[in-house]
Amino acid sequence: MAGTLESGDIMIRIAPGDGLKIDLQSSVSAQFGRQIKAVITETLEGLGIKDASVEAIDKGALDCTIRARVTAAAVRATGKDVWKD
């Protein structure tokens, strides 16, 4: 898990899954849901994660915040430190 429920943030929970499933809760999902899911998907795929169940509770996070929270949650879930060389 990474993130908070503060305004401008997003809480991400990642668990093992079969394929990539994203459950998004957001007050702006009608306008930005597709973009939020795309950022989550691209970030996970960039980290080599293709099988995960993701719960995302968005409070108006920008793309850079979404990427940071997804990366942090993935590191915590897998134990793989993506920041080391």
Provide a brief overview of the structure.
The protein has helices at 29-46, 63-78, and strands spanning 10-16, 20-26, 52-58. The chain is of the alpha+beta class and 85 residues long.
Mean pLDDT: 94
Count, helices: 2
Strand residue percentage? 15-25%
Low-confidence stretches: none
The major beta sheet can be summarized as: 3 strands, mixed
Q: Taking strands numbered 1, 2, ... along the chain, how are they ordered across the largest sheet?
A: 1-3-2
Tell me about this structure.
- It is a single chain.
- The model has no long low-confidence stretch (mean pLDDT 94).
- The protein is globular.
- It is α+β, with helices and mostly antiparallel strands and 85 residues long.
- 40% of the residues lie in helices and 25% in strands.
- Strand 2, helix 1 and strand 3 form a beta-alpha-beta unit.
- The protein is built from 2 helices and 3 strands.
Secondary structure elements and their pairing?
Elements: E1 10-16, E2 20-26, H1 29-46, E3 52-58, H2 63-78
Parallel strand pairs: 2-3
Antiparallel strand pairs: 1-3
Helix pairs in contact: 1-2
